[in-house]
């Protein structure tokens, strides 16, 4: 693990404490085995930002450090998250600390989808009680192809023409301007019965 500590310090300028320091939020140390705490890392940079705000005049290497921390949060906390939603395997750092050009050569969407399928297989087991990975993608897919479980979209759901996210991502169709009045609320047994009885025609094609 000391090798990873040096690796993180050389790329982010962060000195990761090895002993006697525990994350105040969830009692997870900055590093556990070969994993780094995203909560601890983001808090470190948030505190640093308050005393050294990032501006257009900031050095390029400083801007890059913040950009890479943002990517770490997206990879470890959103698209390839573990069940803890806080720990990122250090193996990811070799990719995230490579050149921007090299990172652009990876098929991130394919990897994300592969992890979703892998996790869904594992999480279908009766003994498993938690899920991991980009489950919001599964949620959007469900809403698109199983209308009977999706929130209703209001007539006024169209976004302003100058909205920064307008038309940029398919999932933004479901941000705001929806209502769940048409759905059964907080009734797990009812949803289970519904899934057991739905038929092929109730799942729309792509």
From TrEMBL:
<protein>
    <recommendedName>
        <fullName>Aminotransferase-like plant mobile domain-containing protein</fullName>
    </recommendedName>
</protein>
<dbReference type="InterPro" id="IPR019557">
    <property type="entry name" value="AminoTfrase-like_pln_mobile"/>
</dbReference>
<feature type="domain" description="Aminotransferase-like plant mobile">
    <location>
        <begin position="32"/>
        <end position="197"/>
    </location>
</feature>
<dbReference type="InterPro" id="IPR044824">
    <property type="entry name" value="MAIN-like"/>
</dbReference>
<dbReference type="Pfam" id="PF10536">
    <property type="entry name" value="PMD"/>
</dbReference>
<dbReference type="GO" id="GO:0010073">
    <property type="term" value="P:meristem maintenance"/>
</dbReference>
